[in-house]
Amino acid sequence: MKSGISYFFRVGDESLNLWSDTGIFTTSNKDNKFTFIDYADTQAKSEDEAILSGETLKSALDTVKNAEFVVHNGDLVDVGMTEIQWDWLLGHSQSSLLKTTIAPIAGNHEEEKDAFIEHFNIKEISGSDTKTGAYYSYDYENTHFIMLNTNEDSKEYNNFSEEQLEWMKKDIKESKQRGMKWIIVTIHKGPYTTSNHATDTDIMGENGLRTKVAPIFSDLGVDLVLQGHDHGYARTKPINNGKAVETNKTKELYNGETIEYAINPKGTIYMIPATGGPKVYYKNKKIDSSYYELFDKADEHNAAKYGNDPKDKSRPIRGIIQNFAEISVDNNKLSVVVYEIDQNTDKKPYIIDSFGIIKK
Length: 360
Description:
The protein is an alpha/beta fold. It has helices at residues 47-63, 83-92, 94-97, 162-177, 201-204, 209-220, and strands at 6-9, 12-13, 18-19, 23-26, 33-39, 69-72, 102-104, 136-140, 143-147, 182-189, 224-228, 233-236, 239-240, 243-244, 249-254, 257-263, 269-273, 295-297, 308-309, 312-316, 321-330, 333-342, 350-358. α1 packs parallel to α2.
């Protein structure tokens, strides 16, 4: 394929003369400038909730018109072995998916019997086990993307096999040797989030992600980690081996929005875009309050103002608030703008946060 070219395609069965509508994708321009959309946890239990998730994706693509692809941080459906949920999700997102490319990872709701890999054509690592999900990577312009699978376990690591982490270390080092300027990791179960799962044993325990895996990200020079699983928006300060690192900052305009950029941070920023679907969580009140000193943004979920979910009073009401993020790379500058949709208003996305990184 050539760079900067739009390609049209259809999917179907020639023997049945059965074809999808025509889709389109455009290859990169090779100018080290691009934008993509990040969202997570669409996880619909019903067709109505799948329609809602599809509306989030459409709204994101309508808002971020120059997005070249979409990243999904896992938990695409509620039960990975229930095929009708995949029919709902992909069916009600079909018109959007025909206009873009999606790079997904498996969440814990897709961890059984090849439920993830049977629904996506990705280039998983040769010889890797795909029963619980898949891990893979790709270069786009000057950026290397690592797509992880947190449905594995080993003696030393919760949620990861030793083989996967050894592959990741080698893969990131090789990407830097190729001249990749940015390293972005997508992970479902994230080390640094602010809702229910922040205090889970597999996150903060002896072999947990925050304890064992996050320091590896620091050591490898990962710039940004996109997380899922915890259903509330948050982002950290640059973190290096468990500690927030002070960083010089500057403010610059990005598409008319004033963004504060960290200059050459000596740590990794972790962001969770909340959820593109119905289920949301309250902020975690159990964790030591000093934990929140690691964050630049750790507010209560905006759905909290609408009260408890009638079916689960430990959570805010379902289906009212959705989120997605616009992420842009422009040579040595990375910009992030986070949007929210409130179903009780005009449903037009509005900005709730922005941040960025500059490498000089």
